Amino acid sequence: MAGRWRDLGLAALGLLLLLLVPVFGAPPAIRDFIMFGMAYGLLAMSLNLLIGYTGLVSFGHAMFFAAGAYAFGLAMQSGKFSIPGAFVLAIGFTALMALIVGAICVRLNEIYFAFLTLAFQMLFYNIILGWVSFTGGDQGLMGGIPRPKFLGIDLADRTQLYIFCSVAFVVCIAILRQVVTSPFGYTLRMIRDNQERAAFLGINVIMVKLACFVISACIAGVGGILLTLFVSGAYPNFGFWTTSGEAIFMILLGGSNVFLGPLVGTVILRLLNDITVTYTSHTELVLGIVILVLVLGLRKGPLDLLAERWENRRQAKAQAVRDAADKDAQAGRDA
Amino acid sequence: MDLDALLRCVGTTSCVVTQLTSGMIIGMLLFLIASGVTLIFGVLNVINFAHGSLYMIGAYAAWTFYQLTGSYFVSALGAAVAVGMLGILFERVLMSKVYGSNVLMQLLVCYAVVLISDDLIKIIWGPVPLSMGMPPEFRLPPIRFMGGVIPPFYLFMILAAMAIGLLLWLVIVRTRFGSIVRAAAINGPMVSALGIRVNLYYAAVFGIGSALAGAAGALAAPVRSLTPGMGFSILIESFIVTVIGGMGSIVGAFVASIIIGLTRSFGSIGFPLFVDGVMFLIMALVLIFKPSGLFGREHR
Predict the structure, then answer these.
(1) Does the structure's ipTM exceed the value 0.90?
(2) Does the pTM of the predicted model rise above 0.90?
(3) Cα distance from B201 to chain A (closest Cα, Å)?
(4) With an 8 Å Cβ cutoff, is B239 touching chain A?
(5) Could you tell me if B126 and B222 are in contact, meaning their C-beta atoms sit under 8 angstroms apart?
(6) How far are the Cα atoms of A23, A214, B285 from residue A36, in angstroms, in the given order?
(7) What is the mean pLDDT of chain A?
């Protein structure tokens, strides 16, 4: 229980820090950076629930990101929904889609899973591109997303939008944390480590994986909604395979074994992107080389490596303390 | 949705012949790529997510060789060999380093290679789509067959792809090389223990798979426009083909390619918006009723 209160406290602290940014009058560029970071951060964090905790390497996670974005944008543009209504509708749609895709994919082995999620993502992407009358095709949802006031909140105002997104973001992270530390979360890790054993213990592996897939998709959907609110539009590249690839790369950069690792990875990748863009137009080339160096050189994410070192050192220290205590005890007996 | 048009088409032989040929060329291109994917997976147990890039490089290489030599046959052969060599390099330098590790690492290496090759293509050949044009060897009057019109190059493409497929099958089934490869697919360490340098065979298989993708690129170059990123959509379709046909089965890849090719060509008349959907539906049905694919073995 103590852990749960600590997590909630940390979440509140994080929210407070995020909310302090506009108070101190940070330049709009920084606020924009944070808002993008929150949207993509949710994508990476939710994907890590699949990759890091359950061992389901999905290469199509951006489809749920795009599903949330498009469902929300279309619902708002229809003019029939309030923002909370459209929010719930978009998440419901994302969950339904995840249920269908997941039902087909989670029963398959690792490699099949990776490329079937990729294939479904491309199907979804092609539908967005092809259904021009509904989705605007490659132009995306144009004409802006209307943001009518609700409960006295006016999301057309940049500051209020920022606060709304921060709250939604922190709530999602808290939900993820809750999932990860719950018995369900430990079941996920057990499935990752040894699927057969989990099954022998009477766990319905497929149902647990499917539930995890849907939860993760919904959180990614929220990320998409935030991005839609933020850029006031939805574009096909939200659901393109490179977005999924980037999300995986964020996890690698940040480390999949540290809870907030993917978030750190998001920040690093966005910074890396911004820096390379100012020097060269060949960002993909640079990114590709960075990935190769990390994967073939370090064999894991830099943060994972740090966390591992830290853990080793802690254990070494504990060992040293135990040794010293043993020696003292020995000396005491000798005397 | 225009099922009437589809019915009208099926009613006339000329339309059927035209659609059959266009379905077959889509199918045969897919077959060359998918057989490479399936061969590499069957032997090395890795999915080459960068296979589409090899196809793209094959097409661009064929374009350049064609500009240099002016002979389509030389450039097609050159492209296949060059991409095969590149595949061996890719396998030795990058992929072989992540064989034992999890899918995530393999995925990331391929993702990196796709990013790098797309950007390099833009640097070397420019971002504007290129077109090779029909080589003079094939500027012949179209063949008329049962009221339908078949461009000679289409016929050449189909026959060439079939010949390559047959050759591949013979090599795998009939030669000593093929037996060793099949043995390595089942138990690599055992083959290695028998004194065979199994790494060389892995590299060779990767090279052959890549050369097939390069050949597909070269065959596609005269009839497709060359753009950076052209490999990705065909990669997805070749995955669908390998899933339907069964991972590791070349015969399965052949049958499934024809199914997908015909779905594409006839579907584009009857239900143009739902062609992708129907392809996925076929794949989903196969996965539900026969997860190992039509011709696949059970998973190891």
Answers:
(1) no
(2) no
(3) 22
(4) yes
(5) no
(6) 19, 23, 39
(7) 82
